[in-house]
Amino acid sequence: MTEAPPLAPPMAMLAELTHRCPLSCPYCSNPLELTKRDAELSTEEWCDTFRQAGDLGVLHVHLSGGEPASRRDLEQLVAAARDAGLYTNLITSGIGLTADRLKRLTDQGLDHVQLSIQGTEQESADRFGGYKGGHARKMEVAQWIGDLGLPLTINAVMHRQNIDRLEKTIEVAVSLGARRLEVATVQFQGWAAKNRGALLPTRAQVEAATRTVEDARERLAGTLVIDYVPADYYARFPKPCMGGWGKVGLVVTPSGEVKPCHAADIITTLKFQNLRDAPLAEIWHNSSAFNAFRGTDWMQEPCRSCERRELDFGGCRCQAMAIAGDAAATDPACEKSPLHAALQDLTQSAEDAPTDFVYRTLGG
Ligand code: SF4
Ligand code: FES
Question: From the centroid of its chain, how far is CA 17?
Answer without folding.
Answer: 14
